[in-house]
Design goal:
Elements lengths: L9 E3 L10 E4 L6 E7 L7 H12 L7 E7 L15 H13 L9 E4 L2 E3 L17 E9 L3 E9 L7 E9 L2 E4 L9 E4 L2 E10 L6 E9 L9 E9 L5 E8 L7
Parallel strand pairs: 3-4
Antiparallel strand pairs: 1-13, 2-7, 3-5, 5-6, 7-8, 8-13, 9-12, 9-14, 10-11, 14-15
């Protein structure tokens, strides 16, 4: 069973929609891969991985069938430096992925591509798009305030659904930290795709193949609205395989 993350302000219903959404996005039938980086500011070998992930933003990879995310784990926090972006839920997600894929261990930095360990080799390019048709994901961003953002979306499976779950991540680009202790003491670290919230899982009804959802994302003071993005992805609860992902930036029309 996959771990359960907070569903604060979550509403799930069939036919969910936002009134006059500010912007929308759809994955279409082509597959978009989810690339997860498990990292920590307390890990001396992590900065090169963070830097490599940032190059994907510069290449605008989210429009080229790749949705990157950076999960900062908390198990390095007791070794001299507390990573302000870390969350025990992200460490739990990494352990869950290791369990369903029968990996022997978790480590940082670790890349996970569509639910499986992936080792790019520094200097290499991004992973090639996966072939074949995939489920269709849709997102609509609607009313926003200084503290929340309304989001609606849907998943349409190709055929009957089995143990499929949906997650939604709110993440931020262009972040940095001056490290004052631990293995990276004295360094200025820069980060992109940093997950601020992970909501889910939402379970797709067995045999239905469709899920509609609506929710309100909590926005905290200090998060830069112009650098916030939303990613939704569909994943197997039993194997961890990711079938489809959709990533989009907050549009100007969502400002309060």
């Amino acid at each position: 069973m996959s771990p359960r993350w907070p569903l604060a302000l979550f509403l799930v219903c069939h036919g969910a929609a936002l009134a006059a959404p500010a912007c929308t996005a759809s994955s279409g039938p082509a597959r978009t891969s989810l690339l997860e980086l498990y990292t920590s500011e307390g890990c001396s070998s992590c900065p090169p991985a963070d830097q490599w992930l940032s190059t994907l933003r510069e290449l605008e990879m989210s429009g080229n069938r790749l949705a990157p995310l950076a999960f900062h784990v908390d198990y390095w926090n007791g070794l001299g430096w507390t990573d302000r972006f870390s969350n025990p839920a992200y460490s739990a997600r990494q352990r869950w992925l290791a369990g369903v894929s029968r990996a022997r261990t978790v480590y940082t930095p670790q890349f996970v591509l569509d639910g499986r360990d992936w080792r790019p080799g520094w200097g290499g390019g991004p992973p090639a798009p996966r072939p074949g048709e995939a489920p269709i994901l849709r997102l609509a961003l609607g009313k926003s305030t200084a503290t929340s953002l309304d989001v609606a979306g849907s998943l349409e499976m190709r055929g009957a659904a089995r143990d499929i779950q949906v997650f939604l991540a709110l993440h931020e680009n262009r972040l940095s930290s001056r490290i004052e202790a631990g293995e990276n003491a004295g360094n200025l670290l820069r980060h992109d795709y940093v997950v601020r919230q992970l909501l889910g899982p939402l379970h797709v009804p067995a045999g239905d193949g469709r899920l509609d959802f609506r929710l309100a994302l909590r926005l905290e003071q200090g998060w830069k609205r112009e650098d916030l993005n939303v990613t939704v992805f569909a994943q197997s609860a039993s194997t961890g395989e990711v079938f489809q992902a959709l990533q989009m930036a907050l549009c100007r029309g969502t400002a309060p």
